[in-house]
Design brief:
Blueprint: H1 2-8, E1 14-17, E2 34-37, H2 43-52, H3 70-76, H4 83-89, H5 93-97, H6 108-129, H7 135-145, H8 148-157, H9 168-172, H10 179-197, H11 199-218, H12 226-236, E3 243-250, E4 257-264, E5 267-274, H13 277-293
Antiparallel strand pairs: 1-2, 3-4, 4-5
Helix pairs in contact: 4-10, 6-7, 6-10, 6-11, 8-10, 10-11, 12-13
Length: 294
């Protein structure tokens, strides 16, 4: 059980025994004890994980380990009947790839479903909230509301990164803070809620999460053109127009993310990623506005 707990958090371990003549590693007697061995570099993390799941036993009765997703369920306001769905939604492909048993599934399929569920629910919400808007206006608001940058920020607000199950490599490269990874997991979470509780529970979650963004859209902020706003700001300061530079791309061709940097008055001010150059430029401009107006 302890070994499985460590593996679920990306800490490899092996079973060791202090029995000098034991033929099987799981032999137990009064002559020795069973131990879990981890790499020295992982020792501190292993102790933290075990301690966070430690529970007191009373009168010899076995008590179930604490649900590691309890805090997340409280944060999102939904309790899963099938908690395996929530674990599935939080499992990144890097974690699944490191599982030699082949029994761990990543959340990419849930992400695909969640993208569709979220798109439908947001479209339905905008249809009812903005009957006077034409198709183009609603599409513009929808694109801003469900952008990778927006979903990443919502995921951060839920501290979703703290609950992700990552492989060791992804963990070491800061996967818990990557906007694209957080956005994908956010969509997977929506799919998990939909599969576990149905469309109405998914709708309730989305309405709660996106209420503030819808209110912004009501006064025209959600569809704001941040690039135009940034241009107006620098012109008012008699500075050169902002420049946008593509500084990198990540991911396969069918899911490529673009990283763009915005340069103001000769110096880089902010950078952002998006599923298109336009989306990345808009998010970079938004971040630049925040910093220049602070």
């Amino acid at each position: 059980m302890v070994r499985g707990l460590l593996e679920a958090h990306g800490v490899p371990s092996v079973i060791s025994s202090h029995l000098p003549q034991a033929l099987f590693p799981m032999a137990v007697s009064t002559l020795g004890e069973i131990g879990i061995a981890v790499h020295a570099d992982d020792a501190g993390e292993a102790e933290r994980i075990i301690e966070s799941h430690r529970t007191e036993l009373g009168s010899g009765q076995l008590i179930r380990l604490r649900d590691e997703f309890e805090a997340l369920q409280q944060t999102i306001g939904y309790r899963f009947r099938d908690r395996g769905l929530l674990e599935h939604a939080m499992t990144h492909t890097s974690r699944a790839n490191e599982d030699v048993s082949g029994g761990v599934r990543d959340n990419e399929s849930l992400e695909f479903l969640g993208d569709a569920v979220l798109g439908f629910l947001i479209a339905d919400l905008l249809f009812n909230e903005f009957p006077e808007h034409d198709e183009g206006q609603k599409s513009k608001i929808k694109a801003a509301v469900v952008s990778t940058a927006t979903l990443g920020r919502l995921a951060e607000r839920l501290s979703l990164g703290d609950h992700l199950l990552l492989g060791r490599g992804e963990e070491k490269t800061g996967g818990r803070q990557k906007q694209a990874l957080l956005a994908d997991s956010y969509e997977a979470l929506i799919a998990a809620i939909y599969l576990d509780g149905g469309i109405e529970h998914a709708r309730a979650f989305v309405v709660r999460e996106f209420a503030a963004l819808v209110d912004e859209a009501r006064v025209g902020a959600a569809g704001q053109d941040y690039k135009s706003a940034l241009q107006e700001l620098v012109q008012s300061r008699n500075e050169p127009l902002p420049e946008y530079r593509l500084i990198g791309t990540v991911g396969p061709d069918h899911r490529k993310l673009f990283q763009v940097e915005v340069v103001v008055n000769g110096g880089p001010v902010a950078d952002a990623t998006g599923t298109s150059k336009k989306e990345a430029e808009q998010e970079a401009a938004r971040l630049a506005l925040e910093r220049l107006q602070a």
